[in-house]
């Protein structure tokens, strides 16, 4: 099937989904009052077809996400950030000592059990209070590692090993690795991330092994040395399948799409899409994204970064810098099997506004998370101007007869937490500004339509931090309208509407 045909199908589906959403919104506006719901033959709850049922379902899903986050991460987040001042201290020397000792202990576990050359490069994440205890002389490195559940936040290593037979891919799915993971979990370590790099060599090159081991990044040395490498990931999030480090033609496809050179990424995280791989543009290795024969998310990650940078600049210029964390999520609808991104000549340089409107021409779900101290008043004049300027970023539409602002769903949430913790939250959201590197799941039922109409959170540490350590207001502000329309509100009107479910700019 031709690319043009795929694009026609894709556009048809987009229009169909839009029609469904419009119908749902219309139904919401005209839904029966609570007094008459029981008498309405079209009203159903839960997974039924009634709009109220779908809204309830969406709210239940949202609340369940927060509850699950609190249950899973409370102990971890509170132990790591219980003393917020530690977040700003440099413990790199102590971390290096811990990594070296941990590396020795891990290699000692595996050495008697394998008969091929290998080595580890440990890069654990350690809890800040324990690092302080070591620095203050209250705890030795050895004593800290004797209590790994209290010391190690994420157990993480790169494993390099050499085998002569391509069919003998040890470690990743071996009984030895399973026993190691099981032992660590028994010691209380729940979070782990291990990358496996297997070098296939019919005659083991020990000189290559020794040279690579002394490199800061052995994998880059091996790639430059044209080693045959098979990669995999084991983590508490997902286990990947073993894959040869090559692009299977996808790199050439991407170059044809965007007039740029691309390389396969080295599994910075687990990838659940069995038919896809991660890639990055050679010009910017920080932009990793999922790609398949049917489409890719390169333009999506470009757009998400562009939105982050522009919103960050607006917040600073309007005087709310350091108090608003934010994330903007480009909508991809999750149609993994027919996702077709348009080609675009990315060998040229484009400013952020062009990327937001033309390079990526889909919609965005933008979330502003206002951080307040207890008793602090909201500056609604600043919020109004920030909201208007965000909507001003857009100058194109997706469909004919569509308002420009309808590409953008804008939400504002209010959180209360101590001032000293504001910068931590801002830093965590800045660190994870790009989240849409993978294809999202498709809608599984009609009850999920409202859940997927817009996305107001992602499972990053910033959100987990807020779930655990901040107090969230019971209402949100959803701003609808162009920048010009939003500015027509008086400050009193804007503030009054902030306590309702939705602001409609007229």
From TrEMBL:
Q: Which residues cross the membrane?
A: 12-30
Q: Which UniProt keywords apply?
A: Membrane, Transmembrane, Transmembrane helix
Q: What is this protein called?
A: DUF4825 domain-containing protein
Specify the taxonomic lineage: Bacteria, Bacillati, Bacillota, Clostridia, Eubacteriales
